[in-house]
Design brief:
Chain lengths: 324, 481
């Protein structure tokens, strides 16, 4: 075990997969010589060579299309989008080709697309989004949102081994801010198994990614009021751990669904609807959602702060639920 | 004592960030005397609800902000002392326009527009009302904006309530607006409804045939009989109950607690003895077969075996008043009527209730059949009134529906006996044929048991009762019943 940043855990995990499996290669803009926009692949080209760490032209379509072809031919490509926002350029390759290929022809498409996502540092509307729900809506794609360094490594290993296209959302605000123990050996963290970030009995917060820490800070503030809060980190949205969520709801009967993505059509709506369908008789309060509002991500720091759910917002939401 | 100079009562600052407050209730009316620091009104702000003490002693001469109105901190709410505006003198300084307007709008739609009304004018508009009568206190809006949390039952609370047979209305709510939360109802169930067995007539009334003799009015006559008085075990604090692996705990309903207490008390009170007799039901079966169509067509009632037995029992009890009586203190009480209780299992199988057919001595077979059907139905539908389960003088229990042929029921206190009826079974039966010779016939036979309190009823008396009851059933006299 060693303490690593979230970013280091991704980097080490990726390196480990490349060392153990020759089919794994990296492709993206500036991933080679430059070491990637966030230096995740720094030193990779020296170790693995230019044919396994490919600097692609400025075309997300080409990157995802190339990965899809290589995967069909038996490779296990890992694509990097410089920012998750840019994935929209590759929508057609991903959604029309990669996601459907296995259904159309039975051919597995084991590609992993790394998506540095999320805001919190004035990246503005093109460099701060959390577009996970758009892809969670597409059958055939898997959506992964690690929150801890340990999960970042284990879920990346699982994504690379998975026979389906996997969208790996790595939250930029966690890159260097979050540090934790990461096992040295190789391991795979299974998809669809939520992680109890903290146990509690009065309220459940269902969340993922960077919001896990926002929830944790908020929960600490309510600790003094004697309100015990359970935080469930979903880890993956497709598949998502419905059972764990329903179990938590049955225990606490009050639920806050929290995400950094915008409100309408956000994945929180799916969770809230499922709770209403399958745990209605266990609810002691309406399911509450705290999300970003339905606007593009603002550039201005105070506006961005108003946009992304803050600890105070979550505290207020939790208090409201507790008092209900 | 009254202050000569007028003292203003203003909306107090109840915290740094509080800018306004709502008057929720006036504790004094105009014209009332008030002491200094005596509570004058109640206010509500977004931080606290509190009473506002009077800043001075004197007469409440003016109330300027009515209940339900929200005003800025510092707004004048009332005036203590000074000239009473009520006597028509307009000497009081005109209130701040904003307040006056608010008051005027709510109080006097007739106030001329555009003119700042004086206190006197406001008073004048109120003049028709008796000056000392308390404010009609209309609706005080709840502080949280109008939702009545007490009446909303969340899905989980509704489910828990129905699973445990608890009325959420009985639970003290701690949620918003007094709403009953999941925690509230679970606490309520865990710690039990506030039921002290000896003191609470409600759950006891739900127990088998709780009789009016339990009512306090009759308690004195019971007092001089120490042996008969129910034991009063001091309820020890129950030890914490923990479910082991494979075990499951569920709380007792009030009804179950009532049954438990009553059963135990009955066995501790009466000297239970059971006698049984076999009855050839051939006559009843034959008559019932015929009457069934007739009753159902004409009256929509099924003449059940139970109705026949009940009818014959009532008739027999006439001749055995002690069996229809009770021990009261050191005396034996008998009656000229029969209130017949019937033990009825609840639809969920989790309890029983004993509705009572009053004055059964005045009912013929049809009347009894109809009465039994009615109370049994209302028992299953939970539509019985407290009256329906009180006042029984004798009880019939019918566990035979499941095929049992014998049992030893527990007497419903303070009655003297309980009749048990069991399955009608075809048996080889020795009878005499026309020539007086013994032959074996197939006959529908039913066991009847009488469980009686041997303190009052001896075995011989019980035997005679059963014999006579059997005779009535075996030689059913249609004209008489």
């Amino acid at each position: 075990m060693a303490e690593k940043t979230y970013l280091q855990a991704i980097s080490d995990g990726l390196r480990e997969e490349m060392r153990r499996d020759k089919r794994v290669f990296v492709i993206g803009e500036d991933v080679g010589v430059y070491g990637g926009a966030f230096k995740v692949t720094l030193g990779f080209q020296e170790e693995f060579g230019a044919w396994r760490v490919i600097d692609a032209p400025l075309s997300e379509t080409a990157i995802v299309g190339g990965c899809t072809g290589a995967a069909i031919m038996g490779m296990r490509p890992v694509a990097e989008m410089q920012f998750a926002d840019f994935i929209s350029c590759a929508w057609d390759q991903l959604v029309t080709v990669a996601a459907k290929q296995r259904w159309r022809a039975g051919t597995p498409v084991p590609i992993t697309v790394r998506l540095p996502s999320g805001g919190g540092f004035s990246g503005g509307p093109f460099h701060s989004q959390n577009p996970e729900s758009s892809f969670a809506h597409i059958p055939g794609l898997k959506v992964i949102c690690p929150a801890t360094p340990e999960d970042a490594k284990g879920l990346l290993a699982s994504a690379i081994q998975d026979p389906n296209p996997c969208l790996y959302f790595e939250h930029k605000h966690l890159y260097r801010r979050i540090k934790a123990e990461v096992p040295d050996e190789r391991y795979e963290t299974p998809f669809g198994k939520a992680r109890v970030h903290q146990e509690g009995s009065d309220l459940s917060v269902i969340t993922w990614g960077a919001m896990v820490y926002t929830a944790e800070e908020a929960a600490q503030q309510l600790d003094g009021d004697g309100v015990s809060i359970e935080i469930l980190d979903l880890r993956t949205l497709v598949p998502w751990d419905k059972q764990a969520v329903l179990e938590s709801v049955r225990k606490t009967s009050k639920v806050l669904v929290l995400h950094e993505d915008t409100h309408t059509g956000g994945f929180g709506g799916e969770i809230a609807a499922t709770i209403a369908e399958e745990a209605f008789e266990d609810l002691d309060a309406p399911v509450k959602r705290i999300t970003a509002p339905d606007t593009p991500v603002p550039f201005s720091p105070p506006l961005e702060k108003a946009f992304i759910p803050q600890v105070e917002d979550v505290v207020a939401g939790l208090r409201d639920l507790a008092e209900y | 004592m009254a202050t000569e100079t007028a003292v203003d009562v203003v909306m107090p600052q109840m915290g740094v960030s509080v800018s306004e407050g709502t008057v929720t209730r006036w504790l004094k009316s105009e014209g009332d005397q008030v002491e200094a620091d005596e509570a004058l009104l109640e206010i509500s702000t977004d931080k606290v609800d509190t009473e506002v003490p009077s800043p001075a002693a004197g007469t409440v001469t003016q109330i300027l902000v009515q209940e339900g109105e929200t005003v800025e901190v510092g707004t004048k709410l009332a005036q203590i002392g000074g000239a009473s505006a009520g006597n028509g003198q307009a000497q009081a300084a005109p209130p701040e326009p904003a307040t006056a307007q608010a008051a005027a709008e709510s109080e006097a739609a007739s106030s001329s527009e555009g003119e700042t009304p004086t206190a006197a004018q406001i008073e004048e508009t109120k003049a028709p009302e008796p000056p000392l009568e308390p404010e009609p206190a209309p609706v005080t809006p709840p502080a949280d904006g109008g939702t009545d949390g007490k009446s909303f039952v969340s899905p989980v609370v509704a489910r828990i309530a129905s699973e445990h047979g608890v009325d959420p209305g009985q639970v003290q709510g701690s949620g918003r607006g007094g709403r009953v939360t999941k925690k509230d109802i679970l606490d309520f169930i865990e710690h039990g409804a506030p039921v002290a067995p000896e003191l609470a007539p409600e759950p006891a009334a739900a127990a088998p045939a709780e009789a009016p003799a339990e009512a306090p009015a009759q308690a004195p006559s019971e007092a001089p009989a120490p042996p008969a008085s129910p034991p009063k075990p001091a309820p020890p604090a129950p030890p914490p109950v923990v479910a082991e692996t494979g075990e499951q705990l569920e709380p007792m309903t009030a009804m179950r607690r009532g049954i438990a207490e009553h059963m135990r008390r009955s066995l501790d009170t009466s000297a239970h003895v059971t006698s049984a007799i076999e009855v050839d039901m051939s006559e009843v079966v034959a008559i019932r077969k015929r009457l069934k169509k007739e009753y159902e067509a004409a009256h929509g009632v099924n003449p059940t075996y139970l109705s026949f037995i009940a009818r014959a029992t009532v008739e027999t009890l006439r001749e055995y008043p002690w069996i229809n009586g009770e021990i009261r203190g050191e005396q034996i009480m008998t009656r000229n009527y029969v209130n017949l209780g019937f033990a009825v299992e609840l639809a969920d199988g989790k309890g029983l209730i004993v509705p009572v057919l009053k004055h059964a001595e005045g009912l013929n077979l049809l009347g009894i059949a109809r009465g039994v059907a009615d109370i049994a139905q209302r028992a299953r539908d939970k539509k019985l009134t407290p009256d329906d389960v009180q006042g029984g003088t004798f009880t019939i229990t019918n566990p035979g529906g499941y095929g049992t042929f014998h049992g030893t029921p527990v007497i419903s206190q303070p009655q003297a006996a309980i009749l048990g009826t069991y399955a009608v079974v075809k048996r080889p039966w020795v009878i005499q044929d026309d020539r007086g010779e013994d032959v074996i016939a197939i006959r529908p036979i039913m066991n009847l048991t009488l469980t009686y309190d041997h303190r009052l009823v001896d075995g011989a008396l019980a035997g005679r009762f059963l014999r006579d009851l059997r005779k009535k059933l075996e030689t059913w006299d249609e004209a008489a019943y």
